[in-house]
Input
Amino acid sequence: MRRSVVLGVVVVAALGLSGCGGDEGNVEASASASSTPTTSQSPSPTVEPETEVTEPEPVSGTVEELDAAVRAYSAAFFGADATTIYGMLSARCAASTDVSTMTGNLMAVQSIYGAGPELLTVDASVDGPVGRATYTYSEASLNVTDQPWVFEGGSWRYDEC
Output
């Protein structure tokens, strides 16, 4: 009888130990073999994948960038460059016209002003993604006051339509 008791204790001990050891990856098997939950002594290290750090696109441009955009727009406008002008329109304004219409308008402007007046001053201001520009020409009737611009797709876009 003593032999049966010893054998029973060994079997019970072996079954109890089998729930604690070898198969840490199979939590379900461990949990079903034992009524008490098991926890890992030391968490396995997580390896983060390497990611390329990219700069977020700015939500607004600078006054200097707006000044440059106004000058480029003016040069393209009086140079009858419809493709450049169309590319400088905000999405909202671009949706309301096309390059063909823009070409006709710019040809009319060029027939009146030729090479165009000289751009004398640009006064730009920026408030987040919205900008305003006031600029003057050698032909005062062409002066522009408080013209709206918007910063879209990383560039200042003409937004008066």
